[in-house]
Amino acid sequence: MPQVLSINIRNNRLGAALIFLVSAFALSGIFFIEPIAQSSQYHQFIDQRSFLGIPNFLNVVSNSGFFLLGIYGVYLLAIRKTANILQQIRPFYVVLYSGVALVGLGSAYYHIWPDNMTLVWDRLPMTISFMAFFSIVVAEFISVKLAKILFVPLLLAGFGSVGFWVYGELNGTGDLRPYVLVQFLPIILTPIILIIYRSSFDKTAAYWWLLVSYIIAKLFEHFDVEIFAALGFVSGHSLKHLAAAIGLFLLLMSYQYRTAV
User: Fold this and answer.
1) Hey, how many other C-beta atoms are within 10 angstroms of the C-beta on 175?
2) Do residues 108 and 63 make contact, with C-beta atoms less than 8 angstroms apart?
3) For residue range 91-121, what is the model confidence (pLDDT) as tens digits?
4) Where are the domains of the chain?
5) Dist. CA 95–CA 120, nearest whole Å
6) Of 6, 46, 93, 95, which has the fewest Cβ atoms less than 10 A away?
7) First-to-final CA distance of the chain
């Protein structure tokens, strides 16, 4: 037992040191790169086909997965309460899937009229889900107390990153650096936490599957044109929405079948 305790302490210290160093590097490094402007080309998705009077039809309706999954997640987590979660932070899980539902609505709205101002309603709920997800990971793997301390500041940081970008856009100096930090730093820190710390539950593979689905989604987004050229009936961006929703679905299902350890 003393040897196991010693190993856990060393792992906790290693994890804390890595998280601190990576976070400090990211927070300081972001100021050494040039401001990141929102490219107008970002809104020029390859699949602009309309159907039933809906422009960019598949990019719009592919967001239904987020909306339906988010509603189902809130139902399981807040109403049926069948999920095996940390009861002390139940609102975090509900906020995560509420954010997913809002992503479905916000992203669909953006894809009907894609421009910088409608993009706000896509990105705001995304920050809700990112920050709630990271808070859950911290609670399940590191400390519930720490997660409770971080939750509201993380949400505010997410809102602030979008607000900072929008304010800059309105003044001709749009800068996405804070938003990039909010989106990608938790994705970088999460694998470190999964590897070094021990979860409160078994069946942690769903967190890895979510990260894999996120990477696949980003690849679909990047190769939007090439995928549409190859397949002809669907673009990479539409598949991006589906891939991300599948990862979140796997995570939600894992909450139903895992047990505390």
Assistant:
1) 18
2) yes
3) 999 999 999 999 999 999 999 999 999 999 9
4) 2-257
5) 19
6) 6
7) 17
